[in-house]
Design a protein that fits this description.
The complex is a heterodimer of chains A (210) and B (226). Chain A is mainly α and 210 residues long. Chain A has helices at 3-13, 24-30, 34-58, 67-89, 91-97, 108-116, 123-153, 160-164, 188-209, and strands at 155-156, 173-174. Chain A has a two-stranded antiparallel ribbon with strand order 1-2. The radius of gyration of chain A is 18 Å and the shape is globular. In chain B, a hairpin with a 5-residue loop joins strand 5 and strand 6. Chain B is elongated and about 90 Å long. Chain B is built from four helices and six strands, in the order αβαβββββαα. Helix content of chain B is 35%, strand content 18%. In chain B, strands 1, 2, 3, 4, 5 and 6 form a six-stranded antiparallel beta sheet that branches. The chains are: A mainly alpha (210), B alpha+beta (226). The interface between A and B is medium-sized, with 29 and 27 residues.
């Protein structure tokens, strides 16, 4: 595969959030703000690049019976490492992501890319695929988080200061008073509805293109 | 191994060895990262704890290490949890100036709400903060200090201001306005703050006492549950 094809697949044609619909649980649960969407997106991206790289290195030499078990072990170790690093350096973000950080282990996107792509490709392609898929996932998380935050809280990036631990009273844009926020956008049904609208937009574009 | 298939037994052994090696490698990675981050995580956790105390103590001067001057309590009825609750004591020149308790409101709208309450030696509330909650975003999260200043209404109150029987939301005949649309959350928080003050009144002397700091349960029959 060419690098351009890999990037196109991750960000558009095979986008994990809007096309493959992988990892929906964290996608819907965490995206209540731009900041938390960005945080989970970056954590997933880091895990995906590292796991794809390692899997491409060792995948082919593994006996078929234990291949998946080894992949899961690798992914779990990487996620734990990322979690510890966040707890040490970005405790605000670590607290905001809560259980969804260790649950990256169970994000089927990571295992799916390891098994379906990285284990059969050269390391360079696998790393690029990790970047493209993780990036595609990140874009959806950030978009959904931004829309939900604007609709629900009337701000954009309003909790970035708390997540990054930079102090200061507030950050980001404040567009409308929080009192007038559209609560539904912050609740799980709002997440489903907005993701559904995103899927519809993506389908319509594809239909128009063919 | 094309053209020369391994016997099944050897194949199994090889798979087991590879799996064990992978497990050791994964373990090694986690161990190294754990070792590299341990001190920093402990320091961060400590800084967070101390920052929480500053929020409820409202700048009250104290010169001791609250995290080292604790009493462990257990009172499911008044403190809302069957688990042990830690009380931290703030002192200034050796004199107790506040006790910080961490009770639980078990009856929130979506589960337990953990609170942090600082009480002055005379039983006055110095400050109340929400530690964690699962209330509905935008509706029940007014108890979060970042969202609203609703929790500040307890500051300066005590048992007697209002009277113990009036530590309820107005809807239940008490003195505290419930937050519109979130009566259950308001009721849970008001009730817990009131019960915590009651606990403080009952055990004031032990809480403020000068026993050696450490993890000792209050030796009062009412507070020790098997």
């Amino acid at each position: 595969m060419t690098p351009a094809a890999i990037l196109r697949a991750g960000f558009r044609d095979q986008n994990p959030g809007l096309v493959q619909l992988l990892g929906l649980c964290p996608l819907l649960a965490v995206t209540t703000s731009l900041g938390s969407g960005l945080g989970l997106g970056l954590a997933t991206l880091a895990v995906l690049i590292a796991s794809n790289g390692l899997v491409a290195l060792v995948g082919r030499s593994l006996p078929a019976e234990i291949r998946i078990a080894v992949f899961v072990l690798l992914i779990a170790a990487l996620v734990t490492a990322v979690e510890l690093a966040l707890a040490a350096w970005l405790p605000g973000l670590h607290a905001a992501l809560g259980i969804f950080l260790p649950l990256i282990v169970t994000n089927c996107l990571v295992l799916a890319r390891a098994e379906a792509f990285a284990s059969r490709q050269p390391v360079g392609n696998a790393l690029l695929d990790g970047f493209a898929m993780g990036g595609g996932f990140l874009v959806v998380l950030v978009a959904l988080g931004s829309v939900r935050e604007v609709l629900g809280r009337g701000s954009l990036g309003g909790d970035l200061h708390a997540l990054l631990g930079t102090g200061g009273p507030s950050s980001g844009l404040h567009l409308i008073s929080e009192q007038h926020g559209f609560l539904l956008a912050l609740l799980p049904p709002g997440a489903f509805i907005l993701l559904g609208l995103g899927l519809a937009w993506r389908q319509a574009r594809q239909a128009a293109a063919t | 191994m094309a053209g020369n298939p391994e016997p099944p037994a050897r194949r199994s052994v090889r798979a087991a060895i590879v799996l064990a090696a992978a497990a050791i490698a994964a373990f090694g990675l986690v161990a190294v990262v754990h070792e590299a981050t341990r001190d920093r995580i402990a320091a961060t956790a400590r800084a967070r704890e101390l920052a929480r105390f500053d929020h409820v103590l409202g700048g009250l001067p104290h010169d001791n290490d609250l995290l080292a001057d604790t009493v462990t309590l257990r009172d499911p009825e008044l403190l809302g949890t069957t688990e042990a609750v830690t009380a931290y004591r703030a002192r200034f020149h050796g004199q107790p100036v506040a006790v910080v308790l961490e009770p639980v409101a078990p009856d929130g709208y979506s589960g337990a709400i953990r609170l942090l309450i600082a009480v002055a030696p005379d039983g006055t509330v110095l400050g109340v903060r929400t530690v964690s909650h699962h209330e509905t975003p935008g509706l029940g999260d007014f108890i979060d200090a970042a969202r609203s200043d609703w929790m500040q209404r307890f500051t300066g109150r005590s048992l007697g201001n209002p009277a113990a029987t009036r530590w309820r939301v107005r809807k239940d005949g008490g003195d505290f306005d419930q937050y519109t649309g979130a009566t259950i959350t308001s009721r849970a928080v008001v009730g817990t703050v009131g019960r915590t003050l009651e606990f403080f009144a009952r055990h004031r002397d032990e809480l403020l006492g000068n026993e050696l700091p450490g993890d000792e349960l209050l030796a009062t029959p009412a507070t020790i549950q098997p």
